[in-house]
Amino acid sequence: MNGAARIQVAAVARRSIIRTARQPAMVIPAVLFPLVLLAVNASGLDSATHIPGFPTGSYLTFALAVPFVQGALFAAMSTGTNVAQDVETGFLSRLSLTPLRRTWLLAGQLSGVLVLGLVQAVSFLSVGLIAGAGLKAGVAGALVIVALSLLIALGFGAIGATMALRTGTGEAVQGLFPLLFVTLFLSSSSLPRNLIEIGWFRTVATWNPVSYLLEGLRSLLVEGWDVHALLAGFGTAAAIAVLAVAAAASALSTRMGRA
Fold it and tell me: What angle do CA 160, 65, 190 make, to 5 degrees?
């Protein structure tokens, strides 16, 4: 990438970050709503810690992994809505007249979701620890949690961008949210998979990639350094990110080709 391209990518990235920061109606719920659900679940499901084999005596510690994935779902909506606005206002059509490569344009567009993901990760972890959650992996584990959270946010953000580029409307992106939220509930978000007694639910949770994202984050909070869980978590997050970014790049190429 030459100097001119770097300047263009930086300009698109700066625009994406500033636009995200200037939309408190998107940023505040993306941070606040997962924390509210965490408080409700931690208080209402604390008795689950008495189940034989439950991995920790603190349900707050167990549930703290969930807001990171919930936040990524909100990040997907934020990114998708912003990209849809660029389609509807003709911004992408104007960019099609520039020599900026599609890949770098997409990277710039996704910068906003990474900043939002960082704010979410730091907020969730800070509030959780202040409330009394454990962090068996220590300070280094906190950094790994933030890194995994950013990778998850990137993947879901690219999913939102793909939907926006394929449909060109913010309404279609909003319609994606309930579908993504269902994947969270059909996972190991409330109980470890080995303690789920309903057979079909356990099977769905086992096949659900979201379970491995949660378990990767949760392992650092509950167990310390579980290499298997971390490899599964990072591997799943990386696979989602690669496939989603590739789909978004293809959708962007098609969209700008039409322009």
Answer: 100
Q: Which ranges constitute the DSSP H helices of the chain? A: 3-21, 24-44, 59-63, 65-89, 91-95, 102-109, 111-131, 138-167, 170-185, 199-207, 209-222, 227-258
**40 vs 82, more confident:** 40
pTM greater than the 0.85 cutoff: yes
Residue 22 CB: number of other CB atoms within 10 A? 9
Provide the token pair at 62: 């167990």
- What is the rounded CA–CA span in Å between residue 74 and residue 163? 14
Could you identify the residue written with the tokens 């599964």? Answer: 232
pLDDT in tens, 64-83: 999 999 988 888 888 888 88
* CA dist., res. 120 & res. 199, Å (int): 34
Residue 258: per-residue pLDDT: 54
Identify the residue with better confidence: 38 or 112.
38
User: How far apart are the C-alpha atoms of 162 and 173, rounded to whole Å?
Assistant: 9
Q: Concatenate the DSSP letters of all residues of 3-62 into one string.
A: HHHHHHHHHHHHHHHHHHHT-HHHHHHHHHHHHHHHHHHHHHSGGGGGSTT-S-S-HHHH
How far apart CA 97 and CA 54 sit, in angstroms, is 58
Nearest to 114 by CA among 165, 70, 59, 76: 76
